[in-house]
Amino acid sequence: MRPADTVAPVTDPYLPGESSDPAARDPTAAVTDHVRRSWDRETLPRGDEKRQVVQQMFDAIAGRYDLVNRVMTFGLDIRWRRHTVAELHLEPASVVLDLASGTGDLCVNLMRAGYRPISIDLSLGMLKADRSGAPRVQADILRLPIGPAAVDGVTCGFALRNLVELEAFFAELARVVRPGGRIALLDVGIPSNPVIRWGNGIYFGKVVPRIGALLSDGAAYRYLPKSVSYLPPPAAMLAMLNDAGFVHVSHHFLSGGLTQLLVGTRA
Ligand SMILES: C[S@@+](CC[C@H](N)C(=O)[O-])C[C@H]1O[C@@H](n2cnc3c(N)ncnc32)[C@H](O)[C@@H]1O
User: Fold this and answer.
1) Which CATH number does 44-189+233-266 carry?
2) Residue nearest (by alpha carbon) to ligand 1 atom 11
3) pTM of the model
Protein backbone atom coordinates (compact mmCIF):
# COMPACT_ATOMS: atom_id res chain seq x y z
CA MET A 1 0.00 0.00 0.00
CA ARG A 2 1.32 3.49 -0.83
CA PRO A 3 1.95 5.56 2.29
CA ALA A 4 -0.57 8.14 1.07
CA ASP A 5 -3.33 5.56 1.42
CA THR A 6 -2.53 5.10 5.07
CA VAL A 7 -2.65 8.78 5.99
CA ALA A 8 -5.94 9.51 7.71
CA PRO A 9 -7.95 11.55 8.28
CA VAL A 10 -6.92 14.28 5.86
CA THR A 11 -9.31 16.30 3.75
CA ASP A 12 -8.68 19.54 1.94
CA PRO A 13 -8.99 21.68 3.89
CA TYR A 14 -9.50 20.12 7.33
CA LEU A 15 -10.00 23.22 9.39
CA PRO A 16 -12.15 22.94 12.51
CA GLY A 17 -14.82 25.55 13.31
CA GLU A 18 -14.12 29.22 13.69
CA SER A 19 -11.86 30.11 16.59
CA SER A 20 -13.07 32.37 19.39
CA ASP A 21 -9.82 34.28 19.01
CA PRO A 22 -10.55 37.40 16.91
CA ALA A 23 -7.07 37.37 15.42
CA ALA A 24 -7.59 33.80 14.24
CA ARG A 25 -10.93 34.69 12.61
CA ASP A 26 -9.24 37.46 10.67
CA PRO A 27 -5.45 37.29 10.87
CA THR A 28 -5.11 40.72 9.33
CA ALA A 29 -7.44 42.28 11.92
CA ALA A 30 -5.96 44.62 14.50
CA VAL A 31 -4.50 42.67 17.40
CA THR A 32 -6.38 43.26 20.63
CA ASP A 33 -4.50 44.32 23.77
CA HIS A 34 -5.47 41.01 25.41
CA VAL A 35 -3.99 38.94 22.60
CA ARG A 36 -0.96 41.17 22.24
CA ARG A 37 -0.05 40.84 25.93
CA SER A 38 0.53 37.10 25.69
CA TRP A 39 3.77 37.45 23.71
CA ASP A 40 4.71 41.07 24.47
CA ARG A 41 6.94 40.10 27.38
CA GLU A 42 10.52 39.95 28.58
CA THR A 43 10.57 36.34 29.84
CA LEU A 44 9.98 33.39 27.55
CA PRO A 45 6.93 31.22 28.33
CA ARG A 46 7.18 27.48 29.02
CA GLY A 47 4.94 24.41 28.72
CA ASP A 48 1.26 24.80 27.81
CA GLU A 49 1.49 28.57 28.11
CA LYS A 50 4.17 28.56 25.41
CA ARG A 51 1.94 26.58 23.03
CA GLN A 52 -0.90 29.08 23.57
CA VAL A 53 1.35 32.13 23.16
CA VAL A 54 2.85 30.71 19.94
CA GLN A 55 -0.58 29.93 18.46
CA GLN A 56 -2.01 33.36 19.28
CA MET A 57 1.09 35.13 18.01
CA PHE A 58 1.11 33.34 14.63
CA ASP A 59 -2.67 33.81 14.24
CA ALA A 60 -2.05 37.51 14.64
CA ILE A 61 0.92 37.92 12.28
CA ALA A 62 -0.24 35.50 9.57
CA GLY A 63 -1.44 38.17 7.13
CA ARG A 64 1.97 39.81 6.79
CA TYR A 65 4.15 36.79 7.61
CA ASP A 66 5.45 36.17 4.07
CA LEU A 67 6.20 39.81 3.41
CA VAL A 68 8.19 40.24 6.64
CA ASN A 69 10.07 36.99 5.96
CA ARG A 70 11.18 38.12 2.50
CA VAL A 71 12.22 41.55 3.75
CA MET A 72 14.06 40.46 6.89
CA THR A 73 16.01 37.64 5.20
CA PHE A 74 16.64 39.55 1.93
CA GLY A 75 14.97 36.62 0.17
CA LEU A 76 17.52 34.10 1.54
CA ASP A 77 14.66 32.14 3.13
CA ILE A 78 13.67 30.98 -0.36
CA ARG A 79 17.13 29.43 -0.88
CA TRP A 80 17.10 27.81 2.60
CA ARG A 81 13.74 26.13 1.95
CA ARG A 82 14.90 24.86 -1.46
CA HIS A 83 18.01 23.38 0.19
CA THR A 84 15.84 21.70 2.84
CA VAL A 85 13.67 19.94 0.26
CA ALA A 86 16.73 18.93 -1.79
CA GLU A 87 18.06 17.03 1.26
CA LEU A 88 15.12 14.61 1.27
CA HIS A 89 16.27 12.49 -1.70
CA LEU A 90 12.95 10.63 -1.85
CA GLU A 91 11.15 9.00 -4.80
CA PRO A 92 8.82 11.19 -6.87
CA ALA A 93 5.24 11.31 -5.48
CA SER A 94 6.45 10.52 -1.96
CA VAL A 95 4.13 11.76 0.77
CA VAL A 96 5.84 14.40 2.89
CA LEU A 97 4.35 16.09 5.93
CA ASP A 98 5.32 19.71 6.20
CA LEU A 99 5.03 20.30 9.93
CA ALA A 100 4.41 23.76 11.34
CA SER A 101 3.82 24.62 7.73
CA GLY A 102 2.81 28.23 8.35
CA THR A 103 1.72 29.82 5.09
CA GLY A 104 2.87 26.79 3.09
CA ASP A 105 6.12 27.97 1.50
CA LEU A 106 7.84 24.61 2.02
CA CYS A 107 4.78 22.85 0.57
CA VAL A 108 5.25 24.84 -2.63
CA ASN A 109 8.88 23.70 -2.82
CA LEU A 110 7.86 20.10 -2.08
CA MET A 111 5.32 20.14 -4.89
CA ARG A 112 7.86 21.60 -7.31
CA ALA A 113 10.21 18.75 -6.39
CA GLY A 114 7.48 16.24 -7.32
CA TYR A 115 6.42 15.27 -3.79
CA ARG A 116 2.91 15.15 -2.30
CA PRO A 117 2.97 17.44 0.76
CA ILE A 118 0.45 17.74 3.58
CA SER A 119 0.47 21.02 5.46
CA ILE A 120 0.02 20.79 9.24
CA ASP A 121 0.00 23.74 11.63
CA LEU A 122 -1.52 24.79 14.95
CA SER A 123 -2.42 28.29 13.83
CA LEU A 124 -5.67 28.63 11.94
CA GLY A 125 -4.58 32.09 10.80
CA MET A 126 -1.43 30.68 9.16
CA LEU A 127 -3.35 27.78 7.56
CA LYS A 128 -5.89 30.20 6.12
CA ALA A 129 -3.03 32.17 4.55
CA ASP A 130 -1.62 28.94 3.01
CA ARG A 131 -2.18 29.17 -0.73
CA SER A 132 0.06 26.20 -1.64
CA GLY A 133 -2.87 24.00 -2.60
CA ALA A 134 -1.62 21.18 -0.35
CA PRO A 135 -4.17 19.51 1.96
CA ARG A 136 -4.20 21.46 5.22
CA VAL A 137 -4.69 20.12 8.74
CA GLN A 138 -4.89 22.07 11.98
CA ALA A 139 -3.07 20.04 14.63
CA ASP A 140 -0.39 20.17 17.28
CA ILE A 141 2.67 18.59 15.67
CA LEU A 142 3.54 16.97 18.99
CA ARG A 143 0.36 14.86 18.61
CA LEU A 144 -0.06 14.15 14.91
CA PRO A 145 -3.36 12.76 13.59
CA ILE A 146 -1.37 10.38 11.40
CA GLY A 147 -0.91 6.63 11.63
CA PRO A 148 2.40 4.88 12.42
CA ALA A 149 4.94 4.67 9.57
CA ALA A 150 2.37 6.32 7.29
CA VAL A 151 4.53 8.87 5.46
CA ASP A 152 7.75 8.90 3.45
CA GLY A 153 9.20 12.07 4.84
CA VAL A 154 8.88 15.20 6.95
CA THR A 155 10.02 18.77 6.57
CA CYS A 156 9.75 21.43 9.25
CA GLY A 157 10.81 25.04 8.81
CA PHE A 158 11.61 27.51 11.59
CA ALA A 159 9.49 25.85 14.26
CA LEU A 160 11.76 23.72 16.45
CA ARG A 161 12.33 26.61 18.84
CA ASN A 162 8.57 27.15 19.16
CA LEU A 163 7.93 23.64 20.43
CA VAL A 164 7.34 22.80 24.05
CA GLU A 165 9.35 19.57 23.99
CA LEU A 166 11.89 18.67 21.31
CA GLU A 167 12.37 15.03 22.39
CA ALA A 168 8.62 14.42 22.19
CA PHE A 169 8.61 15.96 18.71
CA PHE A 170 11.45 13.74 17.46
CA ALA A 171 9.66 10.68 18.91
CA GLU A 172 6.51 11.72 17.03
CA LEU A 173 8.55 12.01 13.80
CA ALA A 174 9.95 8.53 14.36
CA ARG A 175 6.42 7.21 14.86
CA VAL A 176 4.93 8.59 11.62
CA VAL A 177 7.87 8.22 9.19
CA ARG A 178 8.28 4.79 7.58
CA PRO A 179 11.62 2.96 7.84
CA GLY A 180 13.96 4.45 5.24
CA GLY A 181 11.94 7.69 5.20
CA ARG A 182 13.71 11.03 5.51
CA ILE A 183 13.43 14.16 7.62
CA ALA A 184 14.82 17.67 7.00
CA LEU A 185 14.38 20.22 9.77
CA LEU A 186 15.35 23.85 9.21
CA ASP A 187 15.67 26.54 11.84
CA VAL A 188 17.58 29.69 12.64
CA GLY A 189 21.18 29.25 13.75
CA ILE A 190 23.77 30.99 15.86
CA PRO A 191 26.82 31.73 13.64
CA SER A 192 30.11 30.42 15.05
CA ASN A 193 32.18 33.29 13.58
CA PRO A 194 32.16 35.96 16.34
CA VAL A 195 31.93 38.87 13.89
CA ILE A 196 29.00 37.36 11.98
CA ARG A 197 27.41 36.37 15.31
CA TRP A 198 27.72 39.94 16.59
CA GLY A 199 26.23 41.39 13.38
CA ASN A 200 23.48 38.79 13.38
CA GLY A 201 22.68 39.58 17.03
CA ILE A 202 22.35 43.30 16.29
CA TYR A 203 20.29 42.64 13.17
CA PHE A 204 17.84 40.22 14.83
CA GLY A 205 17.82 41.99 18.19
CA LYS A 206 17.40 45.56 16.95
CA VAL A 207 16.61 45.78 13.23
CA VAL A 208 14.16 42.88 12.77
CA PRO A 209 11.81 44.06 15.58
CA ARG A 210 11.69 47.47 13.86
CA ILE A 211 10.93 45.92 10.48
CA GLY A 212 8.28 43.81 12.26
CA ALA A 213 6.78 46.87 13.97
CA LEU A 214 6.65 48.73 10.66
CA LEU A 215 5.11 45.94 8.62
CA SER A 216 3.38 43.69 11.15
CA ASP A 217 3.69 43.38 14.94
CA GLY A 218 6.76 44.62 16.82
CA ALA A 219 6.27 42.42 19.89
CA ALA A 220 6.10 39.24 17.79
CA TYR A 221 9.36 40.11 16.05
CA ARG A 222 10.97 40.87 19.42
CA TYR A 223 9.85 37.42 20.62
CA LEU A 224 11.14 35.52 17.58
CA PRO A 225 14.87 36.35 17.96
CA LYS A 226 14.66 35.65 21.70
CA SER A 227 13.16 32.23 21.05
CA VAL A 228 16.46 31.03 19.49
CA SER A 229 17.66 30.41 23.03
CA TYR A 230 15.20 27.51 23.31
CA LEU A 231 17.31 25.49 20.81
CA PRO A 232 19.85 23.02 22.22
CA PRO A 233 23.33 22.87 20.61
CA PRO A 234 23.62 20.87 17.34
CA ALA A 235 25.33 17.85 18.96
CA ALA A 236 22.53 17.55 21.51
CA MET A 237 19.85 17.68 18.80
CA LEU A 238 21.69 15.02 16.77
CA ALA A 239 21.91 12.78 19.84
CA MET A 240 18.16 13.26 20.43
CA LEU A 241 17.41 12.29 16.83
CA ASN A 242 19.58 9.17 17.18
CA ASP A 243 17.82 8.22 20.40
CA ALA A 244 14.44 8.72 18.73
CA GLY A 245 15.29 6.18 15.99
CA PHE A 246 16.98 8.09 13.17
CA VAL A 247 20.27 7.10 11.53
CA HIS A 248 22.69 8.92 9.20
CA VAL A 249 21.79 12.11 11.05
CA SER A 250 23.73 15.22 10.15
CA HIS A 251 23.75 18.91 10.90
CA HIS A 252 24.55 21.65 8.39
CA PHE A 253 24.96 25.36 8.89
CA LEU A 254 23.63 27.40 5.96
CA SER A 255 24.71 30.93 4.99
CA GLY A 256 27.53 31.06 7.54
CA GLY A 257 25.33 29.73 10.35
CA LEU A 258 22.38 32.11 9.91
CA THR A 259 20.27 28.95 9.68
CA GLN A 260 20.82 25.29 10.49
CA LEU A 261 19.47 22.11 8.94
CA LEU A 262 19.11 18.70 10.60
CA VAL A 263 18.62 15.68 8.32
CA GLY A 264 18.22 12.00 9.01
CA THR A 265 16.82 8.67 7.88
CA ARG A 266 14.30 6.60 9.84
CA ALA A 267 15.94 3.34 10.89
C1 LIG B 1 8.12 30.71 12.09
S2 LIG B 1 6.69 29.88 11.50
C3 LIG B 1 7.33 28.89 10.21
C4 LIG B 1 6.36 28.61 9.11
C5 LIG B 1 6.90 27.86 7.91
N6 LIG B 1 7.33 26.52 8.27
C7 LIG B 1 8.01 28.60 7.23
O8 LIG B 1 9.02 27.97 6.90
O9 LIG B 1 7.87 29.78 6.99
C10 LIG B 1 6.43 28.72 12.79
C11 LIG B 1 5.11 27.97 12.64
O12 LIG B 1 5.08 26.92 13.61
C13 LIG B 1 3.74 26.75 14.02
N14 LIG B 1 3.74 25.99 15.27
C15 LIG B 1 4.40 26.29 16.40
N16 LIG B 1 4.19 25.34 17.32
C17 LIG B 1 3.40 24.41 16.75
C18 LIG B 1 2.82 23.18 17.20
N19 LIG B 1 3.04 22.71 18.44
N20 LIG B 1 2.06 22.48 16.34
C21 LIG B 1 1.83 22.93 15.09
N22 LIG B 1 2.33 24.10 14.61
C23 LIG B 1 3.11 24.82 15.44
C24 LIG B 1 3.23 28.18 14.14
O25 LIG B 1 1.83 28.24 14.14
C26 LIG B 1 3.86 28.81 12.89
O27 LIG B 1 3.01 28.73 11.78
Assistant:
1) 3.40.50.150
2) 100
3) 0.85
